[in-house]
Amino acid sequence: MSLTYLEAIREAQARALRDDPRVIIYGQDVGAFGGAFKATKNLAGEFPGRVMDAPISEDAIVGAAIGAAIEGMRPIVEMQFADFSTVGFNQIVNQAATLFWRTQVPCPITVRLPFGGTSGSGPFHSQSLETIYAHYPGLVVMTPATVEDAYSMLLEAVAIDDPVIFCEHKYLYYHLKADKLPTEAVPTGKARIARAGRDLTIVAYSAMVHEALAVAEELKTEGHEIEVVDLRSVKPLDTDTVMASVARTGRLLCVGESWPWGGVTAEVVARVATEGFALLDAPPMRLNAKDTPVPYHPNLWAAHRPTARSIAAAARKLLRQ
Amino acid sequence: MVQAADSVAVRFRPVAAGTAVFSELCTSAFRWMLLARLLDEKFASLYRAGKIHGGVFLGRGQEALSVATALALRPGDVFAPLIRDAAGRLAFGDTALDAARTYLGSALGPMRGRDGNVHRGKPREGLLPMISHLGAMISVVNGILLARRLKGIQGTVGAASIGEGATSTGAFHEALNQAAIEKLPLVLVVANNHYAYSTPTSRQFACDSLVDKAAGYGVAGHRVDGTDLEACLKTLQHAADQARAGRGPQLVVAKLLRLCGHGEHDDAGYIDPKLKTSPVGRDCLKVAEEFLLQQRWADAATIAAWRKEKTHEVEEAVTAAQREPTPDPYEEDWTALSSGQLREGNE
């Protein structure tokens, strides 16, 4: 048996619905249709009444999920694309994220964001929004890079008492496969050494982990051993694992698919530079998408985001310093 | 007899005009209105004396509508009040003490100094804490009602208060449409007080009456004179009954005038003087008092005694809150997450 990243997300939701009667799913086309990406395929039939189609109202979808959470449910909201979550942004960052802090009543909602670029999707179906959500206090932001993490972290997201922004990469949906579902998982908030090395640390998350791993393989033929850190969740951010890796390698390259101004890569570099400056043998580097909306045409799209090629070039430059 | 009328049990009783029970409901409502008005006046005077950090937002002129909304609800129902719902909050179960604690930043209040003034609530007790983004609470009420339905709990009604300004938001549209699709027992109460901060209705909407919107959403609409307590009590009770009976969302639009500034920092010089002297500019508290006297459900001496009693209640609440500790930044845990293992350092 083999299953994809997308199937793992579907299986995690099926298990959450099976194991916990408080779990419900709410989103556009998630019911009988099974979701725009089929992440909720057959779930409406298997769990009658608990997988509900919503009108095109992201604000009210999140607002209702918050109300249901106050009432003791564990709602999973599917945004059809991460890009559309900006319509529900107010409810996420002002209502859900502040509720516990204001009232001590937790807000256990999971907002699934199918995110990231795929060729041909253009500016409004390709965005990576982990940065803006990570900026707000009161939210947990997960960015699983593997089939196993997609499954176990989504179950964890549902179990966590705080609102979780679950960023699932659309490019990984079909490209990533695993033999079986995991039976145990690394705790949320802990990064993972995806590949051990001693010459350079590449910190990445979500789809960029796989680009970084390809670079590590390529640079091995040039005699370099690259360590790849998969952050898994960008908030909380596992500074300890990053710092320990940089202590081993002395060099840091941080890669993210979101825009360059601020963001996860800037945060990682800032933490290493302020807390671990003495560990560095060369100035830290970061690589992001270009500072434009995400383009539609494959020629432009491929050059907009970091790729194995651009990451390798940055890594070589850093290794020469 | 008067004490009994204030108890929540009165909410269980059917309302019928002209009966003794309705007289009890009216006198109870009036007493909540009186308490709310006196509490508001106290906060305004504390504000002028520089004793309150941040703004003070009064419900002056909206007490009849507000109290009628709360009194149409039963224990177990849900209420999402807005800034001018001092009367409704109290009638729903909030206390003058918690109101004073929140305004004065007591560490013992429901918000513990983390939020102030009208931003208070107890979600688990059905009293939702408003955020400032207008229209945002309606879908949260929807979610609670949806969850109740999923859990098989019947007979719950959820009420949300907004002003006419909030009807211009996307959140209002999305939430009312959502409630209509799900046929939720939502009572959405719009206080058309004619000004959203300084913006008059002519710059807010172009339809004849906001109640016309009900048909567009496929929900029932009710209009009411928000200065008339009797009308408010009857209309809100009817709307809540309809919602409880499974007839879907009820949009109640009340016309009235905000008899104060947006906040106490605002002199409201922009309010059209003609509105103030028109029927919508009547003070609902005075209208209610005259109604009680006219019905002989209370005499002037009784009302004076109530005023004295409520004044005392307000003084007690404020004095108690003033004696309480304020939040200590060194004791504060400085985290917005409930999951301890996921907290990041705050150095």
How would you characterize this protein structure?
The complex is a heterodimer of chains A (321) and B (347). In chain A, 40% of the residues lie in helices and 17% in strands. Chain A has 12 helices and 14 strands. Chain A has helices at residues 5-19, 43-46, 58-70, 89-103, 130-135, 147-159, 170-175, 207-220, 239-249, 263-275, 298-304, 308-320; strands spanning 3-4, 23-27, 51-53, 74-78, 110-115, 140-142, 164-169, 177-178, 192-195, 200-204, 226-230, 233-235, 252-255, 285-287. In chain A, strands 3-2-4-5-7-6-12 form a 7-stranded mixed β-sheet, with helices on both faces. Chain A has a 5-stranded mixed β-sheet with strand order 9-11-10-13-14, with helices on both faces. In chain A, α2 links the parallel β2 (23-27) and β3 (51-53). With 347 residues, chain B is an alpha/beta fold. Chain B has a 5-stranded parallel β-sheet, sandwiched between helices. Chain B has a two-stranded antiparallel sheet with strand order 4-5. Chains A and B meet through α3 and α4 of A and α6 and α7 of B.
Question: Nutshell version of this structure?
Answer:
Chain A contains twelve helices and 14 strands. Chain A is an alpha/beta fold and 321 residues long.
